[in-house]
Design goal:
With about 120 residues, the chain is mainly β. The chain has helices spanning about 100, 115-120, and strands at about 5-10, 15, 25, 35-45, 50-55, 65, 70-75, 80-85, 90-95, 105-110. The chain folds into 2 domains: about 5-10 and about 80-120, no CATH class; about 15-75, SH3 type barrels, CATH 2.30.30.30. The protein is elongated and about 50 Å long. Bound molecules: zinc ion.
Length: about 120
């Protein structure tokens, strides 16, 4: 049973390379049809303003080196987000694929969401 209801915002904000984690799928804006799956991320801080990423992607021997603030197009970013219920403040972990599901905004837990199966039976 999956009774909670999550309100999400469309995932329209820009995503930067430093947000990527192993397992994420992304593309560069100038090659949107070439999805890359992140295998490993290593960050190297060069100065207060500049962090370089050493990004290993599946299927490529050479890691990519890019500044942490490089804009990327996120295709899959699975994240577990903890949200507090709007009505009772009970917090709950929600799994979201941000580019598809959107950014989590608020949650109403299963305690306040009527069970749809029960509703139809009672009619
Ligand atoms: Zn609740």
């Amino acid at each position: 049973m999956n009774g909670h209801a999550v309100v999400t915002l469309g995932f329209t904000r820009p995503v930067y390379a430093h947000e990527l984690r192993p397992g994420d799928v992304f593309a560069f804006p100038d090659a949107p049809s070439t999805p890359l799956t992140v295998a490993h991320v290593k960050k190297t801080g060069l100065s207060a303003d500049l962090t370089l990423l050493n990004l290993t992607v599946h299927g490529r021997d050479e890691p990519l080196h890019l500044p942490a603030n490089t804009p990327v197009k996120a295709l899959r970013m699975l994240r577990t987000v903890s949200l507090a219920c709007l009505l009772c403040r009970k917090s709950q972990d929600i799994d979201l694929d941000l580019p598809h599901d959107g950014e989590p905004l608020s949650l109403v837990c299963a305690d306040h969401v009527p069970d749809l199966d029960e509703l139809t039976e009672n009619e």
